[in-house]
């Protein structure tokens, strides 16, 4: 057993110090750690690309909706246009509020008491749903960003333990024997950082964008609720 470890340790320098050779020479546990971190990194980048496109699309849709909404177009016409397609962001809040508004009037309700509260509630529920949709996947980025370095460090510690075991078995502290094992172990930490750094950076970026979009939607919700409230008061007085 010790002979095999010694042979592996002594043969390591011949494999070179490229990333691929270091990976193949690493202990099986270290390999599993690096493969797991590589998979997590690919998953994070898939989420990052998807979120970049999603936030860009939502912001563009919200800008377009605000321009049309404040252009003076009638609410009924705007509702017909927006409800004809899948709406997100402010459009989703508008459709939810108008749907409740129209449901009340089309049912022939004699009293409008409580309509304002119902509109507020449906917009709150829709707002929570939209924020949840924007935040989907961010938990993965946060998890990889916080746990990635520690997982990589675990692989490094395991690799160094294995390297020291090989050194003890070979009874040779020559740098040519020690260096490959240490390099293989440190590669796991590098993988952890490669996975974690983009995850943390883009998580902070996306969390800020969610906060800004949420503030915009909340502001629109309050303004639109005020508009509908005035119309409810006018119709009740009539």
What features would you describe in this structure?
This protein is an all-alpha fold. The protein has one domain (2-72, 138-237). The protein is built from eight helices and no strands. The chain crosses the membrane at residues 28-49, 138-161, 181-203. It is found in: Cell inner membrane; Cell membrane. Its main location: membrane. The Tol-Pal system is composed of five core proteins: the inner membrane proteins TolA, TolQ and TolR, the periplasmic protein TolB and the outer membrane protein Pal. They form a network linking the inner and outer membranes and the peptidoglycan layer.
Largest sheet: none
CA-based shape: rod-shaped
Contiguous helical run count: 8
Number of E-state strands:
0
Helix content: over 70%
Indicate the proportion of strand residues.
Answer: under 5%
Key traits:
mainly alpha; 238 residues; 8 helices; cell division
Layout of strands and helices, then pairs:
Elements: H1 2-11, H2 19-25, H3 28-69, H4 75-83, H5 90-106, H6 115-135, H7 138-170, H8 175-237
Helix pairs in contact: 1-7, 2-8, 3-7, 3-8, 4-5, 5-6, 5-8, 6-8, 7-8
Short description:
This protein has 238 residues and is mainly alpha-helical.
